[in-house]
Amino acid sequence: MGDYIMAAVLSPARPAEDKARDEARQPEEIVAFAGVQRGDTIAEMAPGGGYYTRILSQTVGPEGKVYALMPAFYANREGGLDTINAIAEQYGNVEVVVVEGYDAMSLPEQVDLVWTTENYHDFANGDIGVTNAWAFDALKPGGIYFVEDHAAPGTGLAATSTLHRIDPAAVREQVAAAGFTLEAESDVLRNPADPHTAGPREFGGVTDKFAFRFRKPG
User: Fold this and answer.
1) Tally of CB atoms within 10 A around 10
2) Which residues of 95-104 are buried (b: 16+ CB within 10 A; e: fewer)?
3) Which residue, 84, 91, 118, 166, is the most exposed by fewest CB within 10 angstroms?
4) What total of structural domains would you count in the chain?
5) GO biological process: what's one of them (predicted)?
């Protein structure tokens, strides 16, 4: 693990409420597993409140860049972009891009890594084939597509809109169909005590999660 990753996680610029979530999310392990490097350009899909945006920004450093791809429905809410815009102002290498959907996004350059955490199950409720094809085209040859989400083994796509989880096998199949190769998977966020019968908000403990690193052929 690069020292720059740990420095990003330990940064005093991160808010206390983010740091309180670190034990459950293991960001230093996840960022290292995803293959984030100093100087990378990253497209972060649905960054929410910016938990990972801050870490990724400081990990790639001033020579890198993070495109924070925010869904339009956030932009249409009063104050919906306030937090992510404040992060972009604080960190000079973050650019907010408002998108109608994760299927026809346009970026000014190809990126080294497309990143999504705990959102893929939502994308799967739309045209996931188009979304994954966009991720493939957005990446440079040899680029990484990183996917982490709440697991619902053996359910296919049945739990995506009800329990806000997805079957890891379905993700592997869908992403492979877009031309990616599964390079590695991590069990750092696995929780065998999770019964997979409730949504993340209803489940009292830390959910069972999977993390995949896919590679676009070089």
Assistant:
1) 12
2) ebebbeebbe
3) 91
4) 1
5) methylation
Cα 16 to Cα 199: distance, rounded to the nearest angstrom: 25
Range of the domain at 51: 3-215
- The CATH number given to whatever domain includes residue 101 is 3.40.50.150
pLDDT tens for each residue of 121-174: 999 999 999 999 999 999 999 999 999 999 999 999 999 999 999 999 999 999
Residue keyed to tokens 């031309």: 179
Structure-token pair, residue 87: 């992060």
Contacts of residue 114, Cβ cutoff 8 Å, sequence gap at least 6: 42, 43, 45, 135, 138, 139, 143, 144, 145, 146
Q: What is the dihedral of CA 38, 109, 99, 40, to 10 degrees?
A: -10
CA distance 15 to 12: 8
